[in-house]
Amino acid sequence: MLIFDPAWAKTLFPFFVPLTTPSPDRLFPTPHSLPTGIYVAIYFPVLIASYALLLSPFPKTTVAKQILAFPLLLFLLFYPILLTCPQDLLHLGLSVISSGCLTRLIDLYYVQPWTGIPSRYYVRILMAESMSDSVARAKKDLEDQDKKESVKVNGSGLSSSQGAIKALSLKPNLDQGEPLTWTSTRFRSEMLSPLRNYTSIQPSTRSPNAKQLQWQDLVATLLLCELIQQALLFMTSFYTPDDLDRFTMIEFWVFAVGVAVIMITNILSYYYIGAMAWSWHTGNTLDTSDWAVLGTRNPFLAVTPVDFWNNWHTLFRYIWVDLGFLPTQRLCKQYLRPDTVGSVLSKAARQALPVMSVFALSGLMHGYIVYTSMGQPFWGQFVYFMIQSVAVILTKVASQTPTGRWIEHMYTEGGTATRLGLRILGVLSMFTFHAVTFPLFMHPYATFGMWYGMRYRSLFWWYFGKK
Question: Compositional bias (Basic and acidic residues) at which positions (predicted)?
Answer without folding.
Answer: 139-151
